[in-house]
Amino acid sequence: MDLQLLAALVLGIATIVVLVLWTRLDAFVALLIAALVVGFVAGSPATDTLGSITTGFGNTMGSIGIVIGLGVAVGKILEVSGAADALARAFVKALGKGREPWAMAGTGGLVSIPVFCDSGYVIMNPLARSIARRKGAGYVTLALALGCGMTLTHHLVPPTPGPLAVAGIIGADLGGLILAGLVFTLLLMPIVVMYARWIGPQLEDQVVPEVRKAVYSSVTVTASGTSATTPSGGAAADAGTTADSADASAARPGSPAAVHDDEPVHALGEAPPGGKPHRMSAGLASLPLLVPLLLIVANTVTTAIDRNRQGVLAGDDEYEPSGIADVMAFIGSPVVALIIGILLAVYVLLPKWTTRTQVTGWLAQAASAAGLILLITGAGGALGQVLRDSGVGDELAEAIASWNLPGVLVPFLIASLVRIAQGSGTVAMITAASVSAPLVVGLGISPVVAALACCAGSMVFSYFNDSYFWVVTRFTGLDGMAAIKGWSGITTAVWLGSLPLLLIASAVL
After folding, report:
1. pLDDT at 10 over 70
2. Which of 65, 158, 164, 223 is deepest in the core (most CB within 10 A)?
3. Number of other residues whose CB lies within 10 A of the CB of residue 290
4. Quick count: other Cβ atoms within 10 Å of Cβ 93?
5. Nearest to 439 by CA among 420, 414, 461
6. What stretch of H or E contains 425?
7. In 3D, which of 163, 41, 166 has the Cα closest to residue 432?
8. What angle, 0 to 180 degrees and rounded to 10, lies between the N-to-C axes of helices 139-156 and 100-111?
9. What are phi and psi of 245, to 5 degrees?
10. What are the beta bridge partners of residue 393?
């Protein structure tokens, strides 16, 4: 490979890592500066590099920006309406006694598709504590299973923003990525449960005292409206202790006082006089999530069948959808499907007495949360365009093609290295997608497999530089090496488990 172009690639990635780790700049600015560095070192004219940045940013936002915004909005309504909590309790009830770790992992996986990991874990953690309190033990196992179940779909299944961004940058079919991501999630779920069951009992006695007291004591509401605690009777319960108020308030957004763990979690407040109390069934709760996913997947399947009937290969610009395929291409497009999802969320999940001000406030919060993700995604597309236009992508593809290395390992390893270096899974997968996008054709792998490799590689070894590490370990009550063994270990286990799946997928797809 041309040493100048190799230097451009290496310095570009190093720029991202250094700026995110050791400066006050965030990933958005780091990606843009990295794009400038790549263009400069590769010898591209300055005006051409700027043109590539704006073109790549605009093209990426055009393909995926609306979808990310709508997906985050759906997740916010699921969060505040109590729908996420209703789905979690349905999982626990369906799987039954003795299978609580499976219920927690499945709950995490389902809730984390539309809801950000951090807030989703805060919402669902009280359920894990309630189960552990009734059993008198096993909290670490449940907490790790819940957190890593969320990690799987957060990294692998759109419309989570990271995988959505990767699909847009690489050009992978969104419906195909949803299906493949769900298959990977189901196959990796046993690793989550087995690791949690293995390491959990070893770490149970290392939970910090404050969290131990909060977990193994019952929170009730007295006649005067103040909270009180009583020992649950479990082996870890300490008489006369009180639950950690910060955890209780954080875990139940909008809750004015301590509540029973069996009560639904939502932020709607009390019903006004004459208004019906808010109740949420799992069936209703699933509609804004399942309907858009099913429409997008149905579009992918219908289009594939129609192409096969017409004898038109995928990617052929001459393809004209016919009949039902034309209808599905419209209602199954990600934009329309998620518009339907947000309408269902607002008008089905929220009670009639919810005010317009409340709803617009929640949607504004969702837009605020999506803002940085949108900017990072666009900047990742800009970096990818510079890599294409400067010739770095073509040179790298030719160099890698001469190695005896499965092509799918390239985006996987790039994502893994960036994740370890700077901590953010979203930044890692977007960086890997930006670097890999020009290589997909040359590597001879499916865009869906390339996208999966970027997403799976970014799951590796979550530790101190990952914000989600601190959310999970703080709520679980693990410090130091216990946190590394528990959380860093379980994320690395699913990362390793994804590698053979990727190799099989690259051979099949």
Report:
1. yes
2. 158
3. 15
4. 10
5. 414
6. helix 425-436
7. 166
8. 30
9. -65, -35
10. none
Residue pLDDT, tens place only, 385-412 = 888 788 776 676 666 656 777 889 989 9
Joined tokens for residue 400: 């890698």
Three-class DSSP category at 313? coil
In terms of Cα–Cα distance, which of 24, 129, 148 is closest to 468? Answer: 148
Kindly report the number of other CB atoms within 10 A of residue 388's CB atom.
Answer: 18
> Which residues, other chains included, contact 134 with Cβ-Cβ below 8 Å and sequence gap of 6+?
232
| Tokens coding 386 | 């510079």
Nearest residue to 287 (alpha-carbon basis) of 80, 94, 77: 77
Q: What is the pLDDT of residues 323-355, one digit of tens each?
A: 788 888 898 888 888 899 899 989 988 888 888
Q: CA 41 → CA 10, 180, 382, 508, distances in Å? A: 10, 37, 16, 38
pLDDT score at 479: 85
Cα separation, 222 vs 323, in Å, equals 63
Distance CA 305, CA 328 (A): 12
Q: How far apart are CA 288 and CA 200, in angstroms?
A: 34
Burial 337-348 (b: 16+ CB within 10 A, else e): bbbbbbebbbee
Q: Are 113 and 162 in contact (CB under 8 A)?
A: no
Residues 6+ apart with CB under 8 A from 68: 159, 161, 164, 165, 370, 373, 374, 377
373 closest CA partner among 59, 35, 22, 64: 64
Higher-pLDDT residue of 182 and 251 is 182
Give pLDDT, residue 3: 81
The token pair that represents 436 in the structure block: 């890999």
Quick check: 457 and 416 in contact, CB under 8 A?
A: yes
